[in-house]
């Protein structure tokens, strides 16, 4: 008997999860998110272990909300000065394209959720919303309220939330792990070097290569403090629009229900044919 080994991905309903720009403001109003906010979003269980929501909150807290202010957030001095020597100790990083950054997290409640809610309230009061009672039917609208999707876990098998974000037309920032890099189409050219030798400045420089590969975001080293903050601070509206379109295109071509179910059918047909031949 012939043994078959094949890799078939999870799939997403691209008709349920799709961008609807015309309804974004209404969704944000319903969720209590400021109209002018630049929404950094995440869909994951609200816990420190694995999903690393504490890392996400701390990295987001380093973003300046448009005001010149000093925080008590402890930025790792040596590492951040390597990335950008002009960043003073304990200061926020300015975001020219994000005058009002806002953090939106939706996910299951865990034993660590209360601690994370307290952390967010202490570091980013008034600049976040953490939803632990979000039903499945709400998820398409929750994703449509976001401008960019961030997944801070260092290892994943194939997260459905990331597929849904891609299908929703959201550029995705993930850890540089092979599965996540493949899902987003991220390449080494779009990775932020934490040693400062190839500091991310404009992720849309290589338009031809990016368009050809339909890169739906960026893979970076999220094991390093300060890296995600640097990336978020450098995002431009042009990059977000380009990679949002490419995220949607990648989902349609690789992960839509029609495409993946067809792969399953072909696989089972081949198995059945080989079974008959074996008999």
Secondary structure: elements and pairs:
Layout (H helix, E strand, L loop, with lengths): L23 H8 L6 E6 L9 H9 L15 H7 L17 E6 L6 H11 L4 E4 L7 H6 L3 E3 L9 H8 L4 E4 L2 H7 L22 H7 L3 E4 L6 H8 L2 H19 L1 H22 L1
Parallel strand pairs: 1-2, 1-4, 2-3, 4-5, 5-6
Helix pairs in contact: 2-4, 2-9, 6-10, 10-11
Fold and architecture overview:
The protein has helices at residues 24-31, 53-61, 77-83, 113-123, 139-144, 160-167, 178-184, 207-213, 227-234, 237-255, 257-278, and strands at residues 38-43, 101-106, 128-131, 148-150, 172-175, 217-220. With 279 residues, it is α/β, with parallel strands linked by helices. It has a single domain, classed as Glycogen Phosphorylase B (Rossmann fold). Strands 3-2-1-4-5-6 form a six-stranded parallel sheet, sandwiched between helices. Helix 2 packs parallel to helix 4 (113-123). The longest helix has 22 residues, at 257-278. Mean pLDDT is 80; it is low at 66-91 and 188-212.
